[in-house]
């Protein structure tokens, strides 16, 4: 998981995107956040885990929003959860999600341009759907096919 800084293009109260990506399936989830406070990250992770189940390993960078106690407390609800934090200022340890962030921003920009809007929040779901239904070279299927079998 990682945060995308949208403070230069705020959409109402929203200034950040939480992007979560599964290493095996390449499936992505994205959530608009008003700030990068750990409580907003945790709220959306809880929503994700209740919908899809907890991941075995939750990997992020070393930002305080990912190392806060509210994130660590997720291990209470999901005892098998392992939380890994990368080295400070070392984005290479987050390669998959960093590349996914770039792809998401590119697709998001195209959706906004096509719809002639500056409201990126309304374009997040279509952009994520586009990513999840595009062929992933590493797995030779779309992430959607791998996760849902269709």
UniProtKB/TrEMBL annotation:
Gene3D superfamilies: Ribonuclease H-like superfamily/Ribonuclease H
Ranges of residues in domain Integrase catalytic: 1-150
Record-linked InterPro entries: Integrase_cat-core (IPR001584), Retrovirus_Pol_polyprotein (IPR050951), RNaseH-like_sf (IPR012337), RNaseH_sf (IPR036397)
Taxonomic superkingdom: Eukaryota
One of the GO BP terms on file: DNA integration
A single MF term (Gene Ontology): nucleic acid binding
Signal peptide: none
Name listed for the protein in its UniProt record: Integrase catalytic domain-containing protein
């Amino acid at each position: 998981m990682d945060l995308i800084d949208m403070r230069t293009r705020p959409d109402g109260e929203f200034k950040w995107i939480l992007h979560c990506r599964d290493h095996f399936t390449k499936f992505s989830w994205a959530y608009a956040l008003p700030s990068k406070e750990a409580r907003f990250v945790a709220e959306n992770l809880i929503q994700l885990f209740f919908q899809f189940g907890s991941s075995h390993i939750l990997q992020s960078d070393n930002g305080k929003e990912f190392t806060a106690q509210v994130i660590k407390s997720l291990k209470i609800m999901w005892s098998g959860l392992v939380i890994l934090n990368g080295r400070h200022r070392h984005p290479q340890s987050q390669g998959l999600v960093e590349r996914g962030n770039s792809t998401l921003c590119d697709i998001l920009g195209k959706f906004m341009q096509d719809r002639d809007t500056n409201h990126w929040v309304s374009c997040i779901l279509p952009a994520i759907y586009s990513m999840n239904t595009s062929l992933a070279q590493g797995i030779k299927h779309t992430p959607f096919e791998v996760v849902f079998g269709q």
